[in-house]
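Second attempt. The first submission of Probable cold shock protein A had a stray character pasted in from the spreadsheet, which I only caught after the job came back as garbage. Lesson logged: always re-copy from the clean sequence file. Corrected sequence (92 aa) follows.
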Amino acid sequence: MPTGLVTTWLEEKGFGFIAPDDSTFGDLFVHVSELRDARANGLERGDRVRFDVKYNREKGKNLAVNVIVEKSGGGASSGHLCRTFPSERHSS
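This time the job returned cleanly.
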């Protein structure tokens, strides 16, 4: 089962992105409905996760499914709606 790191989580939209340790997959979209921990209602930036990869023919991209949090990254506080790594922030 592949592993990776959550790079972005949009809490208000219920989805985010995972950077897999195996970069051949590229960044993977993940939806809250794919979280397998019954207590989890979202992810945080920096969470280490395990997941399966599924190809979405409609979108033409891989996505993460059956996501399990291995280790909490302790990312941004729960008051933040959008969580990204500083290197991913865009300047205006």
